[in-house]
Design goal:
The chain contains three helices and seven strands. It has 133 residues and is of the alpha+beta class. It has a single domain, classed as Nucleic acid-binding proteins (OB fold (Dihydrolipoamide Acetyltransferase, E2P)). A five-stranded mixed beta barrel has the order 1-2-3-5-4.
Length: 133
């Protein structure tokens, strides 16, 4: 009886331990509205290459000239690097245009990055480096 209890307890603990990483990862579609594309232009304030996803923060001026900081979630750091992005490419103050999808919570200036274009025409994002057309 004691062995059976320990086996069931051990199996239960293993199931919980193995499911924790899977529950921590979320779908982009859960947080971002894929039917609401967005494009913003501004200056990089910070690039965070952290797991599980990278973040690009930029200052954007609205029509009245008010500056607002937007945050764009991107792929994993290793995925961004594989797609041609290098950590030292974008320094604070670099002008960029970001195309992506708006956060479902529209009260937040946040989105999912699809592509980031520098003023010299380099494009970084989910599909690797390209030259702007």
């Amino acid at each position: 009886m004691k062995q059976r209890f320990l086996a069931v307890l051990g199996s239960g603990l293993m199931a919980v331990a193995l499911s924790a990483p899977a529950s921590a990862h979320h779908s982009f579609a859960a947080s971002y509205d894929m039917s609401a594309p967005i494009e913003v232009h501004g200056k990089i304030t910070q690039v965070l290459l952290r797991n599980p996803h990278s973040w690009f923060r930029i200052e954007v001026k609205d029509a009245s000239g008010k500056v607002e900081e937007w945050s764009f979630e991107a792929g994993t750091p290793s995925g961004m690097i594989r797609n041609g992005y290098k950590p030292d490419v974008l320094k604070p103050g670099t002008e960029v245009t970001i195309k992506g999808f708006r956060a479902r919570d529209t009260s937040q200036p946040r989105g999912m990055l699809r592509e980031l274009t520098t003023t010299d025409g380099h494009v970084y994002g989910l599909f690797g480096p390209q030259e702007s057309k």
